Amino acid sequence: LTKDLAIALACAERLGLTLPGLSLAKRLYDELVQGGAGSKGTQVLLSRYLERPHFERP
Amino acid sequence: MTALVVGFIGTGVMGTPMARHLLAKGHPLYVYNRTRERAQGLVDAGGCWCDSPADVARHSQVVVTIVGTPADVASTYRGPSGILSTAAPGSLLIDMTTSDPELAAELAAAGKSRGVDVLDAPVSGGDIGARNATLSIMVGGEAGAFERGRPILEVMGKTIVHQGPAGAGQYTKLCNQIAIAATIISACESMAFAKASGLDPTRVLESITTGAANSWQLSQLMPRALRGDYEPGFSVAH
Question: Helix/strand/coil (H, E, C) string of B180-208?
Answer without folding.
Answer: HHHHHHHHHHHHHHHHHCCCCHHHHHHHH
